[in-house]
Amino acid sequence: MNDKIRHLRQEYALSTLLEGEHDLNPTHQFKKWFEDAMSAELPEPHAMTLATVSAAGKPSIRVVLLRNFDAAGFVFFTNYKSKKGGDASQNPNVALNFFWQQIERQVRIEGCIEKINVEESEAYFNSRPRESQIGAWASLQSLEIESRATLEDQVRYYTQKYEGVPIPCPPHWGGYRVVPEYFEFWQGRPSRLHDRISYSLKNGSWLISRLNP
Predict the structure, then answer these.
(1) Burial level of 71, CB count in 10 A (0-12/13-18/19+)?
(2) CA separation for the pair 84, 95 (Å, rounded)
(3) CA geometry: angle at 45 spanning 42 and 49, to 5°?
(4) DSSP string, 8-56
(5) Residues 179-194: pLDDT tens digits?
(6) How far are the Cα atoms of 1, 150, 151, 170 from residue 68, in angstroms, in the given order?
(7) Is 176:114 a contact under the CB 8 Å cutoff?
(8) Given CA atoms 204, 73, 19, 189 in this order, what sign does their dihedral have?
(9) Which H or E run contains 138?
(10) What average pLDDT does the structure give for the chain?
């Protein structure tokens, strides 16, 4: 098996990211690439890996779904009492990663995480399918559970509780915004000589650098 893994190879040659080909604003550059990923009809182009770090310095990663982005940052929603929520409350430093394999691109983002306001969280919650709203109440995300049947009992309980009435947003559920301080755009190139362009926030301005592959 190890020998098979060592011989896995793929050449990247779809595109380039040369000097002058990137936008001076990293959010605009991300928007362009994100639109390219959607145009390519990639499965879940908004899926991003979120890395958090506990107060003890232990990292943890998982995939979450991007729900909005602009110059202020990148927004996703979750249970505030989850593992990621616990990490965020103790250490605001996080990282995101988008990998769009089919178009041979990757975007890394580093920054600090913050909760969005309650009104924004409630507005998004109210737009979700009713089943997802029930799930937000039924699941104590990341905590141990006795069995699948226990979870399904909770789903039935909240389904009956809110039958025929609007489902309120749980107080333990809402959005986070990752406020970026660093971007790196990676474009696959042949022979592992990839293009890497970074943006670092210094005194309110973005400094752009080219990195070795």
Answers:
(1) exposed
(2) 12
(3) 135
(4) ------S----TTSS-SSHHHHHHHHHHHHHHTT-S-TTEEEEEEE-TT
(5) 999 999 999 999 999 9
(6) 41, 33, 29, 20
(7) yes
(8) positive
(9) helix 130-138
(10) 96
Do the Cβ atoms of 90 and 137 come closer than 8 Å? no
Predicted model pTM: 0.93
Question: Catalytic positions, please?
Answer: 192
Q: For 112-133, what is each residue's pLDDT tens digit?
A: 999 999 999 999 999 999 999 9
Q: What is the pLDDT of residues 37-95, one digit of tens each?
A: 999 999 999 999 999 999 999 999 999 999 999 999 999 999 999 999 999 999 999 99
Question: Which among 199, 168, 181, 32 is positioned nearest to 114, based on CA atoms?
Answer: 181
Which amino acid appears at position 21 of this protein? E
What is residue 191's DSSP assignment? G
